[in-house]
Amino acid sequence: MTIKKILNENNPENTIVHVVFYFKFNEKREECECVGVLVREDVNSIRVAFNAKKDETVDYLDIERSDIINIDVLSLLNIEKL
Amino acid sequence: MEMGKIYNIKYVDAYYLYSKEVDNTKLSLHEAFGYVKKNGNNIIITFIKKRDSDEEKDTILGLAIPDTALISKENIVNKNIFVDFKIGMSVSVKWRDPVIFDKSNLRNDCPIMYTEGILFKIEKDYFVLKNPETIRIYPTPIKNHPVKKPNYYIIPTSLIVDMTILKINK
Description:
The complex is a heterodimer of chains A (82) and B (170).
Chain A: E1 16-25, E2 28-41, E3 45-53, E4 56-64, E5 68-73, E6 79-81
Chain B: E1 6-13, E2 15-17, E3 28-39, E4 42-50, E5 59-66, E6 90-96, E7 99-102, E8 112-122, E9 126-138, E10 143-144, E11 152-156, E12 160-167
């Protein structure tokens, strides 16, 4: 599956994504999901950041494109602020 | 809070410094995205999990924070309990520490830390302690945090559960 490039580097707003992907969990290749800010898109992988300190990414996950089942860009309207 | 809904949270955390001098200390502001659950006075944010599962055992990476760490809750913290503290006093501080966890060490509450040090700076929303010694008292085993003793610890008032004067230095 070819995934179109999502990240627009000229857009100052965060691109929030929900990603469903295969991940090795409990020794099995399971379908997993995560939510975060898409901070990097390469030919073979994407990077999703989960938290930031003073706008610097702290924890993130690099996901191989071949492991991605689905990726959705979320509207800020679908995200609650706490 | 709704299960399965995605949240954006903004919160504060403590931090330490090894520098010999401190000038411009600030509150450390953090932001995170994830699925949120409340457990008593703790907020658990799940970053990665098994698809369509809300079970704790299916969490792969997450974050636990005290509910008082939320910036939106800042005004509910009673700051009057800190009025007797003055710069130069030796104090002990018990505080709750936001923590990242993974599937090998799942958590549904925050560690509790105990810090002793000299009050170096008092701001409306945080304290700076000089020559601090910090141990994690919950969960066990008790251990130093960090292992190498820093020169300063910056602790937001919203994380503090107890603070005591040990000695009034003159």
